[in-house]
Amino acid sequence: MMLKKSIRSCSPLAGLAVLLLSFSPAGPALAANRFYIENQTVHVGDTDVSVPVKLDNDAPRLAFSLSIKYDQAKMSLKAVEVSGTAADGALWSAGTIHSMTGIVYWSVIRGFNQGPPGSFDINKTIPAGTGLTAARLVFDVLAASPMSTFVALQDGLVGDPTVPDYPVGKNLLTDGLPTVPLLGLPGQVPAGTAVITISPAVTSTKFIRGDSNCSGEADISDAVHLLTFTFLGGEAPCCPEAADVNDDGNIADTTDAIVLLSHLFLGETPPPPPFPGCGEAAGVQCPGHKICNP
Fold it and tell me: Class of the 203-294 domain?
């Protein structure tokens, strides 16, 4: 990924990005071609939040461009990523994040030949399909309290209105000839606008996975405690998540005791973090573990 602070400072190859943004194609949008962002819930204080830009695509494409608006007072856009998406391995992924105006232009070319200059590699394309992830927007949440905000696919955005003749953002697909996709899902108002709900911060407390009796160490006494609770109705774990030794979502079942004993006596795979010391797992509250939370 290449991140540029302004189009004027990009390398000469950035002309391709401007070229993609500057197409003025004729003809109607095809119903099978659509960029959209789904509504999403995040939390106060979240960092590195991934907001996927999705794509319905009726044919393989060489490249695409994105033009997106967000509320820069509530979220900060850190990066646009294509790794692990339908454009994974793109030889060109670059654009401009205008943090002051909350506007991003981004262009992706799946296959770009370094020579001859400006030519495409037609063997490397973004596949046809529905529900593809074209790119991921990576945000930090700036809002200090719960509220709603938005991320919107919009044509005609001007990233820096203080610069005369600044390029106008457009959402486009191209396989040599540009196609104007539909923007957004049915029912999104304005069209192309996803609602991002910012919920209260998720607080976590510390615990040790496997330490079901909260003694401060995951040992054989915890395996006995788990089995006694499971089969004899013994004392409940002081921290339910600590009793989920293999982190499969099932609290204090037979497998949890087996996983702990296999690690302790056979040297097999240890329980997932936090282990063997106190630590946090996202969203887990375990105030009953007094040694980890004095």
Answer: mainly alpha
